[in-house]
## 1
Amino acid sequence: MLARPFRLTRGSDYRLVVRRGSRCGGARVITSMLATGESRPARFGFIISKQVGTAVVRNSVRRRLKAVCAEAITRVPEGTDVVIRALPASATASYSELAADVHRCIGRLTRVPA
């Protein structure tokens, strides 16, 4: 599970990451990432709209994404904020499919440009 110090909690932080961060899209999720330069652990936030499904489905998707991010926290540089927006296809996706999408996007966004 993703502990509280590793989560985004303020709406202003979400807006900053989504508007100014780099973005990577997939079939099930859209990942936005912004390096803040602060010396703190990476933080993750999740956006799951009602288009994904009922409250039960949305909470299930959120819990799976939190578990994926808890595994991926070591791959994200310090001081980085990540926002993951779940698309409607995430409702029927398995844990491994969600994990593959998130890991692919994190890998793509953390690559150092040459």
## 2
Amino acid sequence: MPEPTSFPNPWAFDPRIRHDTRNPSVYYLADEVLVEVDPKGPRVVDNRLREIGAAQINEDSPVSRYVTRWVMPPGRNMTRTLAELRKLAGEGRVGVNHAYAANAESIPVIGQPKLHGGAGEDPAPAPAVGDSSGDGRVVRVAVVDTGLDPAAMTLPLFRDHQRHGLHEPDPVYENPAAGQIGLMGGHGTVVAGIIARYARQVHLSSIQVLSVAGVTDDHTLADAVQRAFDGGAELVNLSLGCVYDGSQGPLALDAILTNRPAGTVVVAAAGNVEKPEPNFYPADRPDVIAVAAMNSLAVPESPAGFSNQATWINACAPGVAVHSAYVFGTWLYGAAPTSFQSYVAGSGTSFATPYVVARIASTTGEGETVQTAANRLLTTPLASVPGYGVYLEGPRDLTWPHHP
């Protein structure tokens, strides 16, 4: 059973978010409906939406080729409305606009996600990160997350990278004047730092999609992932996820991932669920590499207590006290206020995921795709952990303190 935690509920930071009363793990934006585009033109479902007073959001987004976004009039029963629209459009063609969180899974017992591993695993200050390492050809990698803190770009870990692309800024602070770090401020900076450290040849970019509280929605996320592909990303890191109800997965991101450029690879966090979870998206897609977390500080090494486990998980990597770049300021959401000086030891499948991305990038040879490299990496005879996939053991300095 998931352990209680004092960690605040990130969904509460966005007043638009609701949860499904029948499945408390499923969160979505209130009064929004997504409809799959019919290539043959407008359907009867569009006419019905207009009849009941729904307004289509006309967005200049590549996602609109696949999915349209509608805002329902206030007061309508979403369950009944969705049932009616699905009967008109067909199952799987109409759905809610799912909410995602950074490496999160809602825990029905206590109604809140765990974004920083499990109880007692709040992020901790750490010393400066050592030199970067890794080989391979120049691979274009995109981190779709909270962005990258502009101040972190002055750290040697990032400054010495000569092949960086665009880094959209991480908002970091709830109160900039007081240096108060937001609930998920710096999350994308940690992720990017792990990749920069262990795959020095990458052309690294950051796409900002998660709020400072670490949340976003399906349509907005799909647009961000498409921007990553449009920017030439071959390898995409998604240290985030959402739960769906089993009969209706997220429509917008599903469309973008289904139609992504050939040869590209998406790697996603498997979630900090502490239990098997069959419907954690996008990690549970068969064409996405799902990453669980190991505790490399334990003797012997073992799966992290917070990590999801599932038959669809492909790989696992150290995810406890992972050492990386971070931000400067004070974080107030742990057991006690904690001050940070640009480096962190953080836990979660969020931070196991970029190490797998770095391993793929650093083993991609000249003239081959990242898909070829990923296939080779995950089929090379390595230790396999049932329910957690192939174990990609990290170097001692991946964690702070260093693993034995």
## 3
Amino acid sequence: MTEPDYQQQRLDVLAECELDTLAVRAGQRRTVEGEHAEPIFTTSSYVFASAEEAAARFSGEQPGNVYSRYTNPTVRTFEERIAALEGGEAAVATSSGMAAILSTCIALLKAGDHIVCSRSVFGTTTNLLSKYMAKLGVETSFVSPLDMDAWRDAIRPQTRLLFLESPSNPLAEVADIAAMAALAKASDSLLVVDNCFCTPALQQPLALGADIVVHSATKYLDGQGRCVGGAVVGRREHMDEVLGFIRTAGPTMSPFNAWVFLKGLETLRLRMMAHSASALALAQWLAQQDKIETVYYAGLPSHPGHKLAAQQQKAFGGVLSFTVRGQRDAAWRFIDATRLVSITANLGDAKTTIVHPATTTHGRLSDAQRAESGISDNLIRLAVGLEELTDLKADLQRGLDAV
């Protein structure tokens, strides 16, 4: 059997495989060296057999590598793997999660277009749309992720994108992705879903009708807080446009980072289920504490989005938030009293992280914007890692004792 025949048969077999197998195997094409693990192609450029071949590669008439700003075998493997996991036709890797959102907007929008965005998104996403896309003539309206009438009312003839996170950061608000997809289709718009909190291990927005999925690969796709990167997944016609922007502007994922993310994907579902189980246990425990006002976690039956999350997710994820009795000083005392968890704004790590959203992740928003998004001064976000649950409870008890 020739090597091309063998590789094609492998691809045919993978097309019928389940998520855990795709997370380990999808996208890999072995070189003539026969390596078992994916190699890192640390090269900026590629050598062509002739001037004619170089011209054909640059024009796109012949497939193959051209320049690592937009074609690199390691990055391509990551793109094909995350596309397979999300059930998309293609993916484009980017230098960060925010670069994924920016690249999507720049590639698919023009001056005069309009976005309707959930007001419950990452604070930097709000700034990107309201400040920088506005400079390019793209206007954004922000609405509640839970109010379908507000979304309908906000749509204009110029609306081209609907954008949301579900679950949202940091209050775990759960939007009805299928209903949002139907609304986007009816308004001739594209639905873009930030799937960072769930990953394809827990939720596949494309299967629910979304057009595009964006990721901060920095979070759970890596899983150990090592590298920064992003991804955009969707139909090939849209991804070709995003790739065109990447080729021109260069917010490119490095080969080394792509390799790290490939290693992270191999254990994605196992980690996501473990994160989810510990987060649910901690949410239940925190909800019983007198010094806690409210716990925001869709895994709790008391959460307004619990039923919907159970329908469109396989588990409830590793991020929860809660308010302590008191104001900002009480929240800061809680955070400062911990000794095990890490005070950092990153999430999706094997190590549990804790942060005060009002002064960090959402600190650049105005007071009015934070109020509209429910980001109060006594709110704390906890991204639950993979430590022993009893140790995490003991550390959070130190926080409670300080309130």
## 4
Amino acid sequence: MTSNPEVAQLGRTYFNSPANRYTVALSNPYLTNRLGMTLAYRWTDRMWYEQGITQGDVWLPAWSSVDAQFSYRLPELKTVLKLGGTNLFNTYYAQGYGLARIGAMYYLGLTFDELFK
């Protein structure tokens, strides 16, 4: 079932979800003995957004995003260093009408694992 303006004429469904949404990811945690990588592409179709009593119903445009993460193992410290980002190209999109638009997020992290092998 998808959100549809023709269905909304017959009655309100408030089913705010796109007809199509895809994620394609390539990942290899062991490119080398210490280096790993993940690359993901996400795409969401345009969506008819029923919102009830506020500004009226609207079409939200389709959007896409590219995410990546690199990891580097430090076995002597039982630690993994991670560097990555979501929505790398900082193309703003909204997942609902009136919601904040989402931009890029970049991060650097350390994961400590006492059970590291």
